[in-house]
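Q: What does the assembled structure look like for these inputs?
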Amino acid sequence: MSSSLALYVSRRLLWTLPTLLLVGLLVFVLMRLVPGDPALLILGDAATPEQLESLRAQYGLDRPVAVQFVLWLAQVVQGDLGHSITSGQEVLPLLLERFQVSAAIVLAAVAAAVLLAVPAGLYAAWKQNSVVDTMVVAAATFFLSIPSFWLGLLLLLFIGLKLGLVPVVGYVPFAEDWRSAITFLILPTITLALIELGVLTRMARASAIETLRLEYVTHARAKGLSERTVLLRHVLPNAFAPTWTLVGLVLGNLLGGIAVLETVFTLPGLGRLLVDSIFARDYPVVQGCLLFTAFIYVLVNLVVDLCYPLFDPRVSAA
Amino acid sequence: MKTALISTFAVLAAACTAFSAAVAQPQAGTLRVRLNADIRSTDPGLNRDANTDAVMMHVVEGLVAYREDATVGPLLAQSVQTSPDGLTYTFKLRPDVRFHNGAPMTADDVVFTWNRYMKPSNNWRCLPEFDGRGVSKVVSVQAPDPSTVVYTLEKPAALFLATLARTDCGAAAVYHRSSLDGDKWKEPVGTGPFKLGEWRRGQFIELVRHDAYAALSGKRDGNTGGKKAEVAKARFVVIPDSSAAKAALLSGAIDLNPDINDEDMAEYKARKDVVLDSQPSMDMQGLLFQTRDPLLKDPRIRRAIALAIDMPELVATVTTGNAKPSRSVVPAPSSYYKTAQAALPKRDLAQAKKLLAEAGYKGQPIKMLATKRYESVYKIAVMAQAMAQEAGIQMDVEVLEWATLLDRYNKGDYQTMAFTYSSRLDPSLSFEMISGPKDKQPRKVWENPEALDLIAKSSVTADRAKRQALFDQLEALLRADVPAVFLYSAVNTSAARSYVTGYQGWPLGLPRLWGVAMRNP
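A:
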């Protein structure tokens, strides 16, 4: 790594600190503004005032919000995101455990979507206004418009229930049994890939159409290069850069959790943990989840930025 | 392009086929049961919720337990004797009971666990019920010999045994010292028909049959009676989404869903491979009124709303005909649910309009809070709104997320609210859940001093006939004051694959997997 690149990476990473602090402060304040009492949710409608007070004191929820924030921040600085109010588990290991599940699906789905979307977009752009182009655009728009939970349920009912090809609920970690793990991840991965396929195909097509109109492409054709060479060597690298930016945003967004899909397919991922924790007003877990998500988002986009020179030599990290 | 697509689908299909050998096949000896959320802990009564109670009642047991009819019977105790003054309870322990680690259960273990429950820093949910703030004050617990435990109370308490048996109190379960590492909870070493196998957070809790379990003779009876585990393993699978749970049951990925949606009943009934079982539970659904609200403090308006509601119609619609209407706060399965409780007032729009006119009601809007977390609560609100409209009452429904609704309930911050109360197994507790001074406990809906006296009496009266008379009086008072309109006791319907035998719900609502077997599918 060159020194300028190292400097760039360090600077970007340093910038994450104020971002994370701001995220932490916002989440902390917003969670306290939302009505709802974790102690009441734990104890239920039969809770007496004494029981509620006792439980609030146990979790430090009886202290002023500013004090709670400072104490939490002091913990975070030491790498301790606290303990879950509902389960008592340490938040950081819990997040890492759940993140593995989300990451496996998201990475596989986005990789599959990119592998299908880029050739499809390029081909559609090359055959612009043809029947194939119309079909590609229609399919992309269709997948883009479908809510993920609905598509997930349809696939679950058809492939899982009707055809019985894959299990409809549950999860097995890869470390335990990779074959079973794959069967549990097939449906959510397909669902997510199809949803993301829509947006990526449209972007790849639009970028390719724009690139195909540039003079250097005409020049390449005039030189007598084959269409295959024109497309793969001259159009694809330039057309791929905007799609790659979008991949970064999509990845950052999805790695923060795919709560709906994780709920439909009963996967113990980060998104489901976040949603469950919001409903349970499990403040330490919500705060930890969102901090973690913000960090992942920043990190993914940094990696995406660093990869630009690989596709477009005009871009340099420095 | 075409070739690539065909290849992709071919590879996917091949992958699915290759990996699908074990898909949705019933697992020999393992009963898989849906749980809609993970448990909180394995520490009974301390860090808990209803799901935690449901699972832990398979692993641990208390001295006494609830029977099918919500009365209390012995479980780890062979007999219970109460002194004539009602201050001393002597429990003779069953001699054949062993913990999961093989150690015999003794009176010393009972005292050990009791002391842990009563330590304030442990925050046992039911501590206030035994330290003098609630139904009783336990002055001492002694073990005069290895098979005898003596509880001494400060004052007589009719609800002492009933509170010991409460599942939300962890049934005051007795567990072995090895459940703890010093003061820290490890995992339960109990006496139940199952022992804890594996808990994979967010995924499942697997229980393994306790082969040395000393089952009581006789039939299964609530949480007591014959409790022999028939299956080698029971796995509670966490499936939050109800549609996914339905798909899981229909595909055979789980064997039993203990609580299905009423809307799905017709579809399940049409299938031969699924068996349904409906049982009334002790959960109560109803409408609460804020009696300190400037408008609703007038009982005539509250009565008018009650008269505007067509209960049979509302209940039939909300539960798709699965539950019966009931105006009483005492749940229908209770043994104290008699004539006074079963009486059902008829809808009377003319009388409702007359009362509204007398009260000077001029169409002011009344806000009703509801939630979609429990579909029935939302439906009740919508139906009640429409029915009240026919009497000229303007109600607006506001839907809140459950945590917010519960918060507003606890603060008494509402005009009206559709609400669901969790099970109270004794009528004294049912009346207590709604009654009390609002200044101290804003969540209470009824603050009639006469009622509070009667409730206090019912809590110390042991004679059954006298208690019934007190509850009948309370019922009449409640119906006159109308601080709330109770609509029905919820009905829990379970759906099981047809090869599952012996499963049955019961009024407490928690699933029981002992006595449940699986034929060869």
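Chain A touches chain B through 62 residues (CB under 8 Å).
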